[in-house]
Amino acid sequence: LKIIEALSNFFRSVGFLSPDDLSTCIHLCLNQLGPAYEGNELGVGETILLKALGMTTGVGLEHLKAKLKSQGDLGSLAEGLSRYKNTLESVHPG
After folding, report:
1. Listed residue (4, 23, 5) closest to 14, CA to CA
2. Based on the domain organization, do 52 and 85 belong to the same domain?
3. Are residues 50 and 71 in the same domain?
4. Does 66 share its domain with 87?
5. Structural domain range at position 28
6. Domains in the chain, number
7. pLDDT digits (tens, 9 = 90+) for 7-34
């Protein structure tokens, strides 16, 4: 139920803020770039996701790899970094 609620909130936000991107978001959730008949594969590996997460959060790749090794889940790692960054921004506004 937690996943359904999170996806529902995500789709609702995308539908409100950028309705033209809703289809793309659904395909990404299915690990696709578009409809299956187009034959495009996502091809995003863990390292690419870690690099993108590093660029987003300002955390170095080696630190992210070490945290991932200890935590074991990239989604939880990203969520924790997001919470940490939001806490820092509320204490020290940019």
Report:
1. 23
2. yes
3. yes
4. yes
5. 2-38
6. 2
7. 999 999 999 999 889 888 888 888 788 8
**CA dist list (Å): 71 to 5, 46, 61, 94:** 24, 14, 15, 29
- Same domain, yes or no: 62 and 80: yes
| 34 lies in the same domain as 50 | no
Q: How do residues 32-69 score in pLDDT, each as one tens digit?
A: 888 878 888 777 788 888 999 888 888 999 999 999 99
Tokens of 19: 């309705």
Residue showing tokens 């070490």: 66
Per residue, the 3-state secondary structure of the chain, as one string, reads CHHHHHHHHHHHHHHHHCHHHHHHHHHHHCCECCCHHHCCECCCCHHHHHHHHHHHHCCCHHHHHHHHHHHCCHHHHHHHHHHHHHHHHHHCCC
